[in-house]
Amino acid sequence: MLFRSSNGHLPSHSQKKVQLQAWSDCSGINAEKFAWADLQYAIRRIIGAEVSLTLYYTCDSDARSIAFAKANHHPRHVGTNMTQRNFLSGLSWSTSDTEDLPMPQAGVDLYVGTYPYSPWSRRGLRPAWDHPSVEPFRIGLQTIAHMHPAVTL
Fold first, then answer.
1. pLDDT greater than 80 at residue 112
2. CB-CB contact of 33 with 68 (8 Å)
3. Residue 115: CB atoms within 10 Å
4. Which of 13, 21, 66, 152 has the fewest CB atoms within 10 Å distance of its CB?
5. Concatenated DSSP letters for the chain?
6. Spatial CB neighbours of 87, under 8 Å, sequence gap ≥ 6
7. 31 vs 113: CA distance, rounded Å
8. Residue 31, C-beta contacts closer than 8 angstroms, at least 6 positions apart
């Protein structure tokens, strides 16, 4: 519940703390942190709450990007291949834990996916759905349908 000041505006600050969970796919430049910074700023401005983020999962095939994410964002789980998800069983392979882990079906606040854009790039033939690099996009859509995140970027 939001409490309004006597002039009808939201209070300038709040003691409320909010913990959000993020899931990131194919974020070679760690796009989830840029998205997170924007989301955190908006929440702070709208309800005045201090917000912290738990990066639940990050998936990237680039070793340098994963090393950066581990060192700076401390994800709970790390994956290197989106194709290692089973949407029937709800399990996803975690490279960091070396086991299949359940994918959440609720509770993910922010999903960030920065898939290859070559199938639709103006610089190429634009083969669209026939391009081989469209597979991460398809898996991303399945992931979103499975998890029902609050915000998708």
1. yes
2. no
3. 19
4. 13
5. -PPP-TTSSPPS----EEEEEEEEES-TT-HHHHHHHHHHHHHHHHH--EEEEEEEEEE-S-HHHHHHHHHHH--SEEES-GGGEETTTTEEEETTTTEEEEPPSS---EEEE----GGG-TTS---GGGSGGGHHHHHHHHHHHHH--SEE-
6. 142, 146
7. 8
8. 24, 112, 114, 153
pLDDT at 117: 65
Maximum Cα–Cα distance for the chain, whole Å? 60
Q: Shortest CA distance to 37 belongs to which of 108, 104, 112, 105? A: 112
Q: Say which amino acid occupies 39.
A: L
pTM: 0.73
pLDDT in tens, 4-40: 344 444 445 555 777 778 888 876 556 666 777 777 7
Q: Amino acid identity, residue 100?
A: D
Pairwise CA distance, residues 113 & 137, whole Å? 8
Length of the chain equals 153
Residue showing tokens 């083969």: 127
